Amino acid sequence: MKVRFFAYIREYTGTKEIHCERCQTLKELLEKLSNQYGKKFRAKVFQGENLGPEIIVLVNGRHVAHLDGLATQLNENDEISIFPVVAGG
Fold first, then answer.
1. What is the number of domains present in the chain?
2. Does residue 58 lie within any of the structural domains?
3. Rounded Cα–Cα distance for residues 66 and 10 (Å)
4. Full-prediction pTM beyond 0.85?
5. CB of 60 closer than 8 Å to CB of 79
6. Cα angle: 12, vertex 84, 80; to 5 degrees
7. Residue 14: strand, helix, or coil
């Protein structure tokens, strides 16, 4: 599966895109990425056992809030995009 990182999330990962072995769920993928990219990344993507409020995750262009959240099932050919919430004025 392809995982794409946007905005300052790229600073935590050092890359804009990786290819990753299949994970069963979004939570499993984010745990794996958190272990790989460290505390700052984990602090943005997780708040306790939930998805962090400062992060947006899309699976194949669909916001996970409209899927099954962290329980969203993933497939080998999925594209996951991870964005920070952006505020402007």
1. 1
2. yes
3. 25
4. yes
5. yes
6. 80
7. coil
* Domain boundaries, position 34: 2-84
Q: How many angstroms separate the Cα of 13 from the Cα of each of 6, 16, 65, 72?
A: 10, 8, 23, 22
The single residue listed with the structure tokens 């895109």 is: 17
Cα(7)–Cα(84) distance, integer angstroms = 7
3-state secondary structure of 30: helix
Write the pLDDT tens digit of every residue in 31-89. Answer: 999 999 999 999 999 999 999 999 999 999 999 999 999 999 999 999 999 999 975 55
Angle at the Cα of 12 from the Cα atoms of 26 and 66, rounded to 5 degrees: 30
- Is 54:14 a contact under the CB 8 Å cutoff? no
| Residues in a beta bridge with 26 | none
